Amino acid sequence: MSRYEDTIAAISTAASAAGIAVIRVSGPDAVNAVEQIFVSPAGKKLTEQAANTIHYGWIRQLQSSDGEPAQTDLVDEVLIMLMKAPHTFTREDVVEIDCHGGVFAARKVLDAVLQTGVRPAEPGEFTKRAFLNGRIDLSQAEAVMDIISAKNQYALQSSVRQLSGSLSGRIREIRQKLLHETAFIEAALDDPEHIDMGGHLSELDSIVSEQKQQIEELIRSSDSGKMIREGIKTVIIGRPNAGKSSLLNALTGEETAIVTDIAGTTRDVLEDQVSFGGIALRLLDTAGIRKSDDRIEQIGISRARSHAEDADLILYVVDSSEQLDENDYDIFRMIQGKKAIVLLNKSDLETAVTKKEISKYTECTILEISAKQREGFTQLENCIRSMFFSGEIRQNDEIYITNARHTRALQEAADSLTLVQESIRNGMPEDFFSIDLMEACDALGRIIGADVSEDLVNEIFSGFCLGK
Fold first, then answer.
1. H/E run at residue 218
2. CB atoms within 10 A of CB 168
3. Cα radius of gyration (the chain)
């Protein structure tokens, strides 16, 4: 029997104390296995119960710790949920045991299940079975893990849309049109007397261009998709004591960085992840940029410049209570041409520098804030959303590519369609079109699992958590 046809079990809830824990059992022997260890006060047999029903009772051990029969050893009070194939997540018979949420209690219930001959599930094996049994495709399976690991509102919404089939539907539509054209070309090659490709080349060129454009739109969305999933790399820079660490603490809501009146307190880069108005920011607080003879401080300043160089967003904090100096002019030059917001901090103090003066040195957006009083943060949130997501992420119809594997496959498909266009315009034989069209279809197929190796499937699911 195939390893993916036997019955498996795992704890599907977090490995920490909670109100309840869920042990999931899936496979052809799921109901029979749980029935062996289920004690019903009403004398129910699980194998005689209807699907989609819940049953109260107790779980008992088949064996004690020394391997002897333990017919009366009760483990925990439980609710049993019965679900029958094919109307389950895995399209197999599934039994879920709701027990008390103590870590030890859940483990004891799982041990009792495993005593029946059920084997422990591998990481992601329930979702893998859902894929292998045709309930979801590969991109939807990957969306399951993305939902679990989502750290912000937009990442969650994007993953839920992908799980519902938004990406799959788009990929299948593009792929189907390319497969249709491939089949037509193959038919023309097999029967040139009755099928003339000459009159079809213009239509083929138009179809290929249209599908390539859709693929390229998906590829372009990957930059936003990466930021949705991983967060916008946001580097906080400025002169020493301008309020950078205070800004970090205000955004995270924690005392992440030490704040003092002593300039140069921050020597190294401090990093934290924060959801700011539903937008994920990877915040990096850096050493104050200034000329210094201190070797340690110089290293910190060098790292600040390096992180600013490849940042998605720079938040340049200016102390509005002090006049600009040569260090500020240096930073203005550093942020030129980059996505940056100038934050005129300490707006609660007497002003020594204004937005009008700063605008002489930069075209970046300038906002007045007080990190200490948390003033101006709504404007900052709106500004970031406008810079990266055109004001909002339109979840009703927008698809964002958040998976690097998908981006690579899309690029391969686009490259193959470019070759088709070149072959048409250079008057190449029709079999050239067919080869490159199939390459594009194969690349798209790898996204949804229509053309994917077992090794790739195993690699993808190995990154899943146990019980999912």
1. helix 201-230
2. 20
3. 30
The better pLDDT of the pair 466, 75 is held by 75
Q: Report DSSP state, residue 375.
A: B
Could you report the per-residue pLDDT of 403-420, keeping only the tens digit for each?
889 999 999 999 999 999
Residue found under tokens 């899936």:
26
- What domains lie within the chain, and their CATH numbers? 3-135 (3.30.1360.120), 138-449 (3.40.50.300)
| d(C-alpha 227, C-alpha 225), whole Å | 5
Higher pLDDT, 432 or 204: 204
- The rounded Cα 23 to chain-centroid distance in angstroms is 25
Average pLDDT of the segment spanning 340-354: 85
Closest CA to 400 of 390, 338, 445: 390
pLDDT tens digits, one per residue of 6-64 = 999 999 988 777 889 999 999 999 999 999 999 999 999 999 999 999 999 999 988 76
> For residue 309, how far is the Cα from the chain centroid?
25
Q: What's the rounded Cα separation, in Å, for the pair 128 and 131?
A: 5
Q: Which residue in the block uniquely carries the two structure tokens 């497969």?
A: 179
pLDDT digits (tens, 9 = 90+) for 197-220: 666 788 889 999 999 999 999 998
User: Which whole-number Å values give the CA distances from 319 to 76, 359, 362, in the listed order?
Assistant: 61, 15, 16
Count CB neighbours of 394 within 10 A: 9
Paired sense of beta strands 270-276 and 119-120, if any: unpaired
Q: Specify whether the CB–CB gap between 158 and 33 falls below 8 A.
A: no
φ, ψ at 365 (rounded to 5°): -65, 140
H helices of 311-395, where? 326-334, 355-358, 377-389
CA atoms lying within 13 Å on the CB side of residue 453: 3
- 24 phi and psi angles, rounded to 5 deg: -100, 135
How buried is residue 86: exposed, middle or buried, by Cβ count under 10 Å (0-12/13-18/19+)? exposed
CA-wise closest residue to 284 among 320, 311, 255: 311
Q: pLDDT tens, 355-388?
A: 889 989 988 999 999 888 888 899 998 898 888 8
Cβ atoms of residues 453 and 138 within 8 Å: no
Candidate from 321-330, 391-400, 431-440, 444-453 with smallest mean pLDDT: 391-400
What is the rounded CA–CA span in Å between residue 371 and residue 377?
8
User: For residue 313, which of 242, 223, 374, 395 has the smallest C-alpha distance?
Assistant: 223
